[in-house]
Amino acid sequence: MTARTPIGNAAVCVIGAGPAGALIADRLADAGREVVVLEAGPRFDPADRLERMERSIRPAHGPPDVWETGGNRDAYSDSGERPYPLNHARVKGVGGTTLHWQGMVMRLHEDDFRSESARGVGVDWPISYEELRPHYAGAESELGVAGADDNPFGPPREEPFPMPAFPPSYSDSLFTSACEDLEIATHSVPNARNSAPYDGRGACAGYGTCQPVCPSRAKYDATVHVERAEKKGATVIDRAPVRRLEHDADRITAARYTIPGGETHRQEADAFVVACGGVETPRLLLLSASQQYPDGLANTSGLVGRYFTEHLFAGMGGTLDEQTRQNHVGFLTSESHQFYDEADDELAPFKLEFLNYAGPSPVEEALAGDDWGDPLLERLRGSYGTHLGVGALVEQLPSEDSYVGLDPDVTDDRGDPVPEIHWSIDERALRTLERANDLQRAILEELDAEITWRVGPENTGPAFHHMGTTRMGADPADSVVDPDLRTHDLSNCWIVSSSVFPTGGALNPTLTIAALALRAADRIDVAL
């Protein structure tokens, strides 16, 4: 049975065992620091991954079921103009959301760090791409990234990827031909999954269930660094949700957490790292309100929870009169950043994604009818394997009107107010969704595809990349953390999460989270 009592003489208390918390814990444990990690969710048994994979492909189970998300523990409220299905794509547990992510890892473009200067909208980051560049390389090495230097639109890099890129899929070849005729360049997708044995883990075995389960561990997840940190002496306490950060005038003194059975403990430390993601991080700070900080901890700017930002999805797909081999690959192998840096104050950056999992799976196709035996086989031969689709991710501008707050009328299983998500979408993003749809339609028409579905401005949804709620900046009046990710208000508290992103760009955030975590770990070690 795991001991869940506090440890003495802790130098660092890390709250959250996702990729940011795990990398911080590993790096600081390697530096000889006494590290304790408090994780709200359980430690999942690796031996259960095959069973979870099987559960994920059965129609009776939705995405939250696979990693046991939902119920009173994960309750939330939704008050914005657009619905926000928070529990559809989050995991509470050791490893965090990397347990079910797709695993795509791109570096932000240079102009993403200078949005106001280069595009006339948003704000500039207080750090540049060049400052983060060596940490990007470190993050690619730590996570294990398979990629190729074939993206002519990406930011400058000299460092080789740790592993070669995955080859293009069969459906990629169909898209490539159409894109060449339309003068749209395609290139490989960097993936945090092993294309060859790496870091003691085997190469991808091709299960195709990457989101939500990789049973072989070829896809990186944060348990890699949690286990590494523990071998170096770190202590990881699971099922220990932190409910409040105790503090004096300018320092956190303890993290108060509850363990199964209801017993409450206080973990003291010299430094605290809040790494709970873009929703639970502001929630914890708001729950820690006090006489000293009546509006929430680290919130003298009034911006904790504000500027909740997402990536928006645009997509279009249909069928061909030939085989496309859909669902043979469970992740993306080709994309296009050609239009990314055309962004300005009217149109947002976006990337095109060529989907390897468009259309129903064989199980879904079979269940769509009531035939059996040879008639079913004949139907599947005629309908399965002919689907294809093109996706896109689009940047949303940060706005104070999109926020994560507390709902005092709804409480979780411990009696604490749940997070309230208030989400809206800006007109620039809506225009860009239309632009992405136009390109997607042109590609599909070039293939003579029958278009059967579209996701655009009227029915877009989030990519579940929670950003912006404790934004980074040099001025304490308009930001929550400084360029080193230390809170302006509290000298021994750092926030390491996508919540610190001042703007989101249109690229998957995990590699940037990892790079910021490595950079912050160096600075925390110096500060101790």
TrEMBL record:
Classification via Pfam families: GMC_oxred_C, GMC_oxred_N, NAD_binding_8
One GO molecular-function entry: flavin adenine dinucleotide binding
Region Disordered: start-end pairs: 60-81
Domain of life: Archaea
Secretion signal, residue range per the UniProt entry: none
The entry's keywords: FAD, Flavoprotein, Oxidoreductase
Essential cofactor(s): FAD
Domain Glucose-methanol-choline oxidoreductase C-terminal: 398-517
InterPro entries linked: FAD/NAD-bd_sf (IPR036188), GMC_OxRdtase_N (IPR000172), GMC_OxRtase_C (IPR007867), MIP_CS (IPR022357), P2Ox-like (IPR051473)
Glucose-methanol-choline oxidoreductase N-terminal domain location: 91-312
Family statement: Belongs to the GMC oxidoreductase family.
Name listed for the protein in its UniProt record: Glucose-methanol-choline oxidoreductase
Organism: Halalkalicoccus jeotgali (strain DSM 18796 / CECT 7217 / JCM 14584 / KCTC 4019 / B3)
